[in-house]
Design goal:
The chain has 462 residues and is mainly beta. It is 3% helix and 51% strand. A hairpin with a 5-residue loop joins strand 36 and strand 37.
Length: 462
Amino acid sequence: MNVRQCFLAAIAAVVFLAFSAGALGAARFVPIPEPDLGDAPVVTSDVLDLGSEQMLVGRDGEVTIYDEEFAVRGIIRGFLGQVTALAVDDLTGDGRVEVVAATDNAGALYVYARNSDGTQWSRIAEPYYLWQPAQTLITGALSGQMHSIVAVDEEKQLRVLYWDDSSLSETWKSVSGQQVRWAALVDLAGSGFRKLVFTEPTGYIAVYAYADGEMHLVSERYPWGPILMLGWKHAAEGLPGELYVVTGEHMVYYWQWKDSDMQLKGSFEAEALGRRIGWVPNRGLWSTTPEGVQFFSIESSDLTLQERKKGLTGIALEPLADHWLAQDSGGMWQVWRPVDLEYLQVFVEGQMRPPPALYWDGDLAYLCLEDLAALLDIAVQDGRVLVHPRTGRSVAVEPNERWATYAEKTALPLEQAPIVEDGVVFVPPDIAGYVGWRAEYDPDKRRLEFEPSLDWFDSKQD
């Protein structure tokens, strides 16, 4: 075994410790503290034509655009109120993406486009007032003449708006009191135009098409149980579009579009699904496990595991290049970064700190004695004796012995024996308990925390 010296992967002050690359055999995801997204609405798209997606975050009456390195590349201003939802699409047909933002100011919708020089953003339409803040925005072409924005407000009513030259107009809305849970615009027939699909939580899925200037109900189904997820696949390469729902008992229903209607291809119980599930377009159905997130494809009678994202968790997910955005149960978003090597996050009194050098043996982590002492502000004598600065009491470690010596006479048990590699002494984290610190390790989060604790010193009598 070789000594694995720590390396600093500095992304917004997040520092990881490199372990053996083969410990788990796959990339793992960890949250990073910056940028701080809070509960702001987020969406990803290449709005700047950079060849890679950017992250748009709506907060404090403006939309901030971050590139894949999380540097700010633009700010859209001019909104009255807080931004409640975001969407992006080429509404005008000029080949550039516009940004649609909903606010809590009378439910106003704003449409912004980049100026010709590509550096500034300007509003290109008067605000359209829904009178209720939108929580969800979806865009897509319902016909050759109608590029639409679907808004679901905080009262769960759905409205369809269409873009006409330089203004928004409402063409349809769901029945008052109808609780829309999930919605999507899906090309089911392969025409290039999309149909509106939405669900109610009680067990209802409807498909509407736009024709002759109106929205028409063309198909509806009543799967058994409350609907937890809506998934879809656009028609492509001669294959029809597909719709999927998962209900409260983890029953999966799978339809294909045929003869202008939904044709059931299969329904089955999916025992592989965890407590939290969702859908990511072009990625498929996902479900959380204690180890992370699993992605599945849906077949007529079963799920097929496609990939795992270890460590990742949340109630909503959004991909961003090789990162993921995840929303927790409190509505807070956070960026999760892949780490190809195993890692360790070290906190001292709640503050993330650069970790010490590490010696890794299977699942056991040993910390460089000198680095650990510097981290916890403890003196070191003769390369193996730790001296607490307040009490002056000392603890000496003995390589290859599962004990340390207090005051040159008392043996203290350790979880593992300290080791020496290339002349460097490495110790188990619990040694800190004998010099005024309590060490707590969370193996699921790979998080090591140190908190002051003089209980042992206060009770120890010389």
